[in-house]
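Title: Request for sanity check on Choline monooxygenase, chloroplastic prediction

Description:
We are preparing a figure and want to confirm that the structure record we downloaded matches what your pipeline produces today. Could someone re-run it with the sequence below and paste the raw structure tokens into this thread? We only need the token string, no images.
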Amino acid sequence: MAMPLKPFTLCLGHSKPRNLNFPNKREIITRCSLRDSVSNTQNHKLVDQFNPKIPIEEAVTPPTSWYTDPSFFNLELHRVFYTGWQVVGSTEQIKDALDFFTGRLGDVEFVVCRDESGKVRAFHNVCRHHASLLASGSGQKSCFVCPYHGWTYGLNGALLKATRISGMRDFNVKDFGLIPIKVATWGPFVLVNLEKESLSQNEVDSHNVASEWLGSCSGILSTNGVDSSLSYVCRREYTIECNWKVFCDNYLDGGYHVPYAHKGLASGLKLDSYSISMFERVSIQSCESNSGKSEENYDRLGRKAIYAFIYPNFMINRYGPWMDTNLVLPLGPNKCQVVFDYYLDHSLKDDKDYVENSLQDSEIVQIEDIVLCEGVQKGLQSPAYCVGRYAPRVEQAMHHFHCLLYENLTK
């Protein structure tokens, strides 16, 4: 006769422990909830301090609390990052069978892998025994072995081996596989959807993903060279002492700061040609290059630079033979990590001097932006500042971003 299980908790959120001794036990064991009780009167007051219905010519920016308050940050994680499709990496990281990489989004530890058959999968990177992280970094594995007690999982998430469980009663191995996460690829990007966790590991329709993630501008990005034809070059990561939205706002100011903060870059662009287009969840900024630049720099920038912001935290920059992407990961109210991946036309990937010089030029711009963003965060924490205003002709994309945030936060 089986001994009844005692109540215990298997949820990622902070909800109350659940008693598993009822017919739906298997469903509770194999699924986790990312929802938390973050909706409260104080947070609603903070959200409502921004009004998206006011036209940009009259609107004020979100208040400083959106960038500094810990409870507001927690609300964002649940309403913004734990819903919808989120970019988490590059297909270069899982180009071969048995490849894997790990990452973290808010409180969610995840692992993405390509199994023996070549299928892309994603799971919560947490052992089902006592919650140890299973894998770290990236590389190749034929299975995931928990470093704590040796429980072993296949790349399909199934529990293959549970050590020293003799005497354990009422244990069904099928109930203790890794918790799957919906995963998809679009072009050279890997995306996950934490809102659509499912026991099913069926392939996700890429057309549906493009529609949900990019809306009506997926074709525009594809025809402007955002695809898988470029060669992957390298990754660079920056930890910045600012709220994740500060970095996004800086990106979305329509080139406003470029002539003041990026004089080297500004000399290569025709800033009076700047244009901005908005779509459902995407904004695209474009600017022609300055034909007066030297041939070397002209080759790097090409005839036109295109800067696409995909809500909430992903940026694609396409210029000349280059494409680079910026993924902004929230680490706390006052800290974020920005991950840059660089791609290049395959005909130039072996030109070491050209690649090194181009990356050095990019590094200069990133360091300049870091100084700006960290300075803004300090200013946001000052009692001298509460809200600001938008420059209507150049900061439309920033206003669009804030309106999308408001929509997410009030759902």
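Thanks, this matches our download. The chain has a mean pLDDT of 88.
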